[in-house]
Amino acid sequence: MKSASRKEYIARRVAQELRDGFYVNLGIGIPTQVANFIPEGMHVVLHSENGLLGIGPYPEPGDEDAARSMIGKLDLPATVADGAAAIRALKTYPGSNGRVGVVGFCWGGAMVNRLAVAAGDDLAAGSAFYGPAPDPALAARVKARLQLHYAGNDPRVNGTADAWVQGLKSAGTSVERFDYPGTEHAFHNDTAVARYNEAAARVAWDRTLKLFAKTLR
């Protein structure tokens, strides 16, 4: 039996032991695959080694509708609260220097902004890629250094950018805004052939790494 097949077999077998209503802690590695084999209709809350609740199966690559459906089922306030709690927990991990950064794309980019609001000074830095901004009135709560990346052809997201950036600057927050002319939403996603822009993605990622090098080390 090939290694990949053995791992799947183990994950499937473990999933058979789960029962509706279970809270289950999953370690790193094979255990994280168990979520893919939980029977349809069974409600199980999974707790990962990194402290995240509610982990579920991954959608198939390229199945954007499935991904959107899964995101739409999330309790957003609870998800933000869990994220902020995870940030606080990471600061206390053995070997941690107490500085935590987050990066996100699209919905995840919006989550970076929300976490910056919710986590306050627990978050050191965040890099948000083409994520819709929250209410500018919340900008004063942000203490992290932010980097915001916007596609050139993305009016839905970009329509929220100006007020958010201005709110952050007015609040004295360190924020950098980068626009990438001629690019589409999700230009960093190399699985979306029609949208991926390698040159812009490389520049944006290099900027993100430099931000984290300055703020997290």
Give a short overview:
The protein is α/β, with parallel strands linked by helices.
Notes on the protein architecture:
The chain folds into 2 domains: 58 residues, no CATH class; 153 residues, Alpha/Beta hydrolase fold, catalytic domain (Rossmann fold, 3-Layer(aba) Sandwich). The strands form 2 sheets. A 4-stranded parallel β-sheet has the order 3-4-5-6, sandwiched between helices. α3 crosses α4. The protein is globular. Helices cover 39% and strands 17% of the residues. The mean pLDDT is 88. β3, α4 and β4 form a beta-alpha-beta unit. The protein has 217 residues and is α/β, with parallel strands linked by helices. The chain has 7 helices and 6 strands; from the N terminus they run αββααβαββααβα.
Strand order in space, largest sheet: 3-4-5-6
Beta-sheet strand percentage? 15-25%
Taken in chain order, the helices and strands follow as HEEHHEHEEHHEH
> How many runs of DSSP E, i.e. beta strands?
6
By secondary-structure content and strand pairing, the structural class works out as alpha/beta
Largest sheet: 4 strands, parallel
Distance between the termini: 43 Å
CATH homologous superfamily (4th level) name of the largest domain: Alpha/Beta hydrolase fold, catalytic domain
- Helical residue percent band: 25-40%
| Radius of gyration using CA atoms only | 19 Å
